Amino acid sequence: PFDVLVVGGGPGGAAAAIYAARKGIRTGIVAERFGGQLLDTLGIDNFVSVQHTEGPKLAAQLEAHVKDYDVDVMNAQEAAALIPGGANGLHEVKLKSGASVKGKTVILSTGARWRQMGVPGEAEYRGRGVAYCPHCDGPLFKGKRVAVIGGGNSGVEAAIDLAGLVAHVTLIEFDSQLRADAVLQTKLGSLPNVTVITSALTTEVLGNGEKVVGLRYRDRGTDEEHLIELEGIFVQIGLVPNTEWLGDAVALSGRGEIEVDARGATSQPGIFAAGDVTTVPYKQIVIAMGEGSKASLSAFDHLIRAGA
Ligand code: FAD
């Protein structure tokens, strides 16, 4: 068995594996796709101390850094179930391939995925005007016109954030009213360069072959189609944690995120979690790496205390 078995090969899982391996203990990492969300990311300008990089490049560097150590990397392997072993037992991770791997401790770092609208043009123009992370890509749209899709807390926060950077924000909500907290709605209403459209269903992302030039939506009251000319679309209709495979092996929040404490411990002794898959707020690369390192140190601490 591994001393530390990491599930997930994104920034969180990679950091956890490096920190564990540096303790000289048996470390394994199972990843469906090593690099995680980085593989879908173009420019990265907020990875502190690196002025600019690109997702696939950072993913390759992460993998190289992990492989500098004695880590058993099991790439292209999907975990299908977790069977906790209790306080001093071995935890088992069953793989989709039918194999199973065991660890004295386990670090869950399976990340999350942005919920997509599923309309024509969205996938085609992803990274070319269609964006999901205002903290990451907001500055690319400085002085331009953007839409935010979704009137929950994250959509309204994104609209407020973007309004300070871009020329104009159109917030589009499917329901007849916004669902964000009142204080956010009040703030949004005070901004001169924000238009809110409710009861609107986005039907198409329009592009010119190179980048986004507009968005089409249907007014759900009148059934009329409308066109908005703009350069950017931020989709804020939810971040879905990759926890379906866990069932009820560890405690999850109402949104399906793994509940962790300040040390990254889950509800099961010896099982830790880090990154976008957890309840830790603000899903970012530096945060996932910090949390992965922390969970790994906690796992090591657990091992010495358990006398393993
Ligand atoms: P992930 O990166 O999601 O990695 C999860 C890992 O788990 C992957 O290896 C995946 O294959 C694996 N996995 C999932 N399920 C299973 C399973 N059942 N079995 C085995 N393995 C599994 N953040 C920034 O800080 N700056 C940016 O500029 C930025 N831009 C972004 C742009 C885009 C388009 C996207 C999508 C995200 C962006 N982010 C950015 C967010 C950032 O990518 C995430 O916060 C970060 O990748 C989270 O790391 P993680 O390790 O928690 O999860």
UniProtKB/TrEMBL annotation:
Protein name: Thioredoxin reductase
Gene Ontology CC annotations of this record: cytosol; protein-containing complex
Residues the record lists as binding NAD(+): 145-159
GO molecular function: flavin adenine dinucleotide binding; NAD binding; NADH-dependent peroxiredoxin activity; oxidoreductase activity, acting on a sulfur group of donors, NAD(P) as acceptor
Residues at which FAD binds: 3-18, 266-276
Range of the intact protein held here: 213 to 520 of 520
Disulfide cross-links: C133-C136
FAD/NAD(P)-binding domain mapped to chain residues: 2-292
Subunit structure: Homodimer.
Note on how the cofactor is bound: Binds 1 FAD per subunit.
